[in-house]
Design goal:
mainly beta; Porin; 8-stranded antiparallel barrel; 8 strands; elongated
Amino acid sequence: MKYQMFNYKSFFFFAAAVFLTGVSAFIVPDQGSNGVANAQEVFTNESIQGTYAFTATVGAKKAAGVGVLIADGTGNFTGSEIFNVPIPIRKRQVLAFTLDGIYTVSANGMGNATFTSPNPDGTISEFSGDFVITQAEVQDFSNIKLAIEISFILREPVLGELETLLVKRLPD
């Protein structure tokens, strides 16, 4: 029986496998423990883009609002909101507003926003607040961490109370 110590055909397949495995390490994204490609490691302004719905609460049920925001992924947003606010003699009033603003997202998912809103009397109010992205999804087509849920607090008191918002992204 004759043994061949070196088999060229086996060596070719072995070398091809090693080469392809090495090349694939450069072209296949790193896989997480669940088999999904890992996204960028940080949040950016691109993390907030699309249409978002929000609910707002002022103080201990003093006022409440709902609205829609459209963010462009570059730090700008527009929107509209409806607020139910108290007025004298145990009555309430429903007010509609539009919003225009800017936002900045830090790498850790926290950020701030400043926006303006015209008042019913024609004056313009400016507000600012802080937020944190509390839920995000990786977009397969862009590898961006896209904010699905955001918690927001306004810096200035509204009706003398703290205003909080829960913001959720609507499906495309």
